[in-house]
Design the sequence.
């Protein structure tokens, strides 16, 4: 092991607050910060999206590098994250990244047609760092999800000594699958195209490539690490993962309590803590007003903030929304994604005005206000690698309703009477993937909500629980040290 600080390149396709579509961005900001505090020299590599280039002061550190012969030469720019803690490198390649909007899709929700090249470039530049071609010479290339998934392949076939690799799975449902004609375009060795390689049912899978060639594999919760070794959750990759189980570990995500903290949160209406839950009630009142919901002192307000996709269990929730409202609850939902789900939600909001609020789109401030103002948070996911919103909720005294899967199973303790008495209960958990069980769970939560003593016990238990990154960052450091040894 080097006596110097471990040198890590953290490769990602999104990072808060520069560019975000989901939890990967939150983790890509918070985990490197936590590792910096453990004395790790960790730096981020991100595509140079226009919003990012605009937001940061930049220095050109490497100029006019030809990565692929058919692509214009790129520059590598350097800066520091807005937190002032973590250095960041950006790939300046206007032909691929100079587009407004989402990193993965155009404004109609269609994948960018050249995503293989856009993220092949990210992977290849990460590999060049790993081959010691630039000033910063990392000992480990830490890849995240499919977008950086080819880096371990490039390094595996590199002639000279190179960095070790880690592949972190944040969501196995997204694999980056492309037709094989991208092989020559991305200068991938033909011999890597096979079952023992990056081939996946006749196509190229970026994610499979990373799981096959990386030295170690992590995912974002211990239960999801087990889930993805089974056919039900693996999206076809259980065989490979079961073979590699010695190299696979689940390290639970944490939350960034500088950003998600009801005592300091600048987005919410009134700050509060465990000794001042009246402050939370004020947030509920203001949120109802902002969203046009009827004022109420006794109806629980159920919140949800979500990418609107199959994963998040909307198919379980939507059919029972009228019944939940008829039982005396209100709903505040913020999300965007699947157009059909968006339309169905809008229809329901029109049917029950004053009781249901649907906000479509991405809204950082409203996300914080829902976490602070809702009484109950809905997360009935069909699968959930980790999930951050249930942890934000508990930290804000907002009791989560979750399905027992992945990271939700690892972070929420069901409110059985035994767990409530032992002050370990933090939420309501259901098992089966169907609307009836979700409805029963909502009813359980609504009954508990009427008993203020029990409710405040649940709130306080969640609010004081340690969800910080400290322990998990240490586990990543241990893994880095094992590899560098
Ligand atoms: P996932 O990464 O699967 O989307 P997570 O729970 O890990 O789920 O993280 C989701 C993150 O994205 C949270 O920070 C959440 O607040 C945020 N988020 C999701 N949808 C929206 C939205 N429409 N507006 C604002 N923030 C959102
Ligand atoms: C993914 C997962 C989510 C996880 C996040 C960060 O988007 O869907 O469960 O919390 O990545 O790891």
Sequence:
């Amino acid at each position: 092991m080097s006596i110097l600080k471990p040198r890590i390149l953290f490769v990602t396709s999104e990072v808060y607050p520069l560019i975000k579509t989901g939890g990967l961005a939150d983790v890509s900001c918070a985990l490197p910060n936590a590792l910096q505090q453990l004395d790790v020299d960790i730096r981020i590599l991100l595509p140079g999206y226009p919003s990012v280039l605009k937001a940061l002061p930049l220095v050109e550190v490497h100029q006019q590098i030809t990565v692929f012969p058919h692509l214009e030469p790129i520059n590598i720019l350097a800066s520091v994250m807005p937190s002032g803690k973590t250095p960041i490198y950006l790939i300046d390649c206007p032909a691929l990244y100079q587009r407004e909007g989402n990193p993965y899709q155009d404004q109609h929700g269609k994948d960018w047609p050249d995503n293989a090249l856009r993220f092949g470039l990210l992977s290849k530049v990460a590999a060049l760092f790993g081959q010691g071609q630039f000033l910063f010479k990392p000992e480990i290339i830490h890849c995240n999800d499919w977008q950086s998934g080819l880096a371990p392949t490039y390094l595996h076939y590199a002639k000279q000594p190179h960095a070790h690799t880690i592949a972190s799975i944040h969501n196995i449902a997204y694999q980056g699958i492309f037709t094989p004609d991208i092989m020559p375009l991305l200068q991938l060795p033909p011999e890597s195209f096979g079952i023992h390689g990056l081939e996946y049912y006749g196509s190229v899978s970026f994610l499979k490539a990373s799981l096959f060639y990386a030295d170690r594999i992590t995912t974002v919760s211990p239960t999801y690490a087990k889930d993805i070794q089974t056919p039900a959750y693996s999206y076809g990759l259980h065989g490979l993962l079961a073979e590699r189980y010695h190299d696979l570990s689940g390290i639970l995500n944490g939350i960034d309590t500088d950003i998600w903290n009801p005592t300091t949160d600048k987005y919410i209406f009134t700050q509060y803590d465990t000794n001042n839950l009246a402050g939370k009630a004020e947030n509920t009142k203001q949120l109802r007003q902002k969203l046009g919901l009827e004022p109420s002192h006794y109806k629980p307000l159920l919140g949800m903030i979500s990418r609107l996709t199959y994963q998040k269990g909307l198919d379980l929730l939507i059919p029972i929304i009228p019944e939940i409202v008829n039982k005396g609850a209100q709903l505040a939902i913020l999300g965007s994604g699947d157009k059909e789900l968006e339309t169905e939600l809008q229809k329901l909001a029109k049917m029950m005005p004053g009781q249901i609020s649907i906000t479509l789109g991405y809204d950082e401030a409203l996300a914080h206000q829902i976490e602070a103002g809702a009484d109950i948070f809905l997360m009935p996911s069909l699968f959930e690698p980790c999930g951050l919103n249930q942890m934000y909720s508990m930290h804000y005294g907002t009791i989560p309703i979750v399905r027992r899967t992945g990271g939700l199973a690892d972070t929420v303790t069901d409110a059985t009477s035994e767990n409530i008495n032992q002050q370990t209960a933090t939420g309501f958990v259901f098992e089966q993937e169907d609307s009836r069980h979700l409805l029963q769970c909502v009813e359980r939560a609504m009954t508990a909500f009427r008993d203020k003593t029990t409710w405040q016990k649940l709130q306080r238990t969640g609010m004081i629980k340690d969800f910080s990154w400290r322990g998990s960052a240490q586990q990543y450091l241990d893994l880095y040290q094992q590899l560098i040894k």
